[in-house]
Amino acid sequence: MRPRQVATLSLLAVSFLSMIAIHPTSASLSFEVQVAKAVDYLVKRFNPNLGLIYESDDPGKHWLANEFNDFKWQYNQTYWLYSDNLFAGYALEPFRRDIADRIKQSLQGHRMPPSRLFEAVMGEQIPTIRNAVDYIVESSSDHIIVARRHDSPVVSYGVYADLICYRSLQLFHHGRIQEAHRSLRQAISLWNGKGLDDWSYRVVDGFHSNQKLALLLYTSKVLGLRYVAYEEMERHLWSMQKGDGGLASLSDGEGKPMGSSNTETTALALLIYNDHLIQSIQSKTRISEAPWMSFLIVSILFTFVTASALREVCHRKIARLSSFFSQYPNSL
Q1: What's the pLDDT tens digit per position in 124-144?
Q2: What's the average model confidence in pLDDT over 38-58?
Q3: What is the mean pLDDT of residues 74-81?
Q4: Is the backbone of residue 272 left (phi > 0), alpha (psi -120 to 50) or beta?
Q5: What is the β-pairing status of strands 144-149 and 208-209?
Q6: Any residues with CB less than 8 A from the CB of 293 and at least 6 apart, and which?
């Protein structure tokens, strides 16, 4: 190959690599005051003896009483390993590393198998998404520790906004970037200006789930997917913040916050601003793409070199034939 050909091919390869680079989406609006209040909300609900944050301050009967016959604990006595504290452990990293580390240590100490879903938010690959099963991990007279794992034999289906986000992350972690973008656009299309108009809202209860909106914004930042409604969604999410600093878990059909704030929604909202985590996930995905990219580039190089070599051989043979016939014009 001639030097000019090598230089041209190298330039093409670099240009191709730059085309697939993932550029993080940054919010154009600042929410420092709201973020600080949300951090304070989580820190104030941190139990140093357990190393965990309780679910919420909702005074009502806990819905788990419908699932476990002898469930007697209140919301402020209920501590979820997955997903609440898993999310909170990473959400607090940029703001209160001391609390974040304590939560992660507590999670490790319980030695509970992974949730098989929520880890996708942290950049881990997950298996086929299945329905959830709730487990009691530990209980006493004044607290209960529970975990939600997606290990049911039933595969999850339905147009649920959060599951679409998890599938998008699942695809992204496997290096299937364009498929991940297409998947997430399905969730973005559910935005109606007041919430995410998914199966839960349409069929199940008629409420918008604000944790799904926070998850969508976070997923879009991880995927580096830009879209017009991002800032509108972000403003709406923070309009769900209540006086205690936490974000309401639900909103009504008009987009007005409903009920109590909770740890899960507040932690997911804060995860949007963990730039170090997002960049780390993006870097990991680019590295996982490297073998495929190397194969593609080598294939292009091989094809280019082979074509050049064949062309040179053909030129030489034509030149020899031309020389032969010029010397022996009557040979034809």
Answers
A1: 999 999 999 999 999 999 999
A2: 98
A3: 98
A4: alpha
A5: unpaired
A6: 17, 20
What's the per-residue H, E or C state across the chain? CCHHHHHHHHHHHHHHHHHHCCCCCCCCCCCHHHHHHHHHHHHHCEECCCCEECCECCCCCCHHHHCCCCCCCCHHHEEEHHHHHHHHHHHCCCCCHHHHHHHHHHHHHHCCCCCCCHHHHHCCCCCCCECCEEEEEEECCCCEEEEEECCCCCECCCCCHHHHHHHHHHHHHCCCHHHHHHHHHHHHCCECCCCECCHHHHHHCCCEEHHHHHHHHHHHHHHCCCCCCHHHHHHHHHCCECCCCCEEEEECCCCCEEEEEEHHHHHHHHHCCCHHHHHHHHHHHHHHHHHHHHHHHHHHHHHHHHHHHHHHHHHHHHHHHHHHHHHCHHHC
Residue 85 tokens, joined: 């504290």
**0.85 exceeded by pTM:** no
The residues that bridge with 208 in the sheet, in sequence order, are 251
Residue type for position 307? A
Question: What is the pLDDT at residue 30?
Answer: 83
Of 66, 37, 59, 84, nearest in space to 245 by CA: 37
Between 220 and 157, the higher pLDDT residue: 220
152-171 pLDDT, tens digit per residue, is 999 998 899 999 999 999 99
- In sequence order, the β-bridge partners of residue 250 are 209, 258
Query: 144-149 and 78-80: which strand pairing?
Result: parallel
Sign of CA dihedral 123, 124, 125, 126: negative
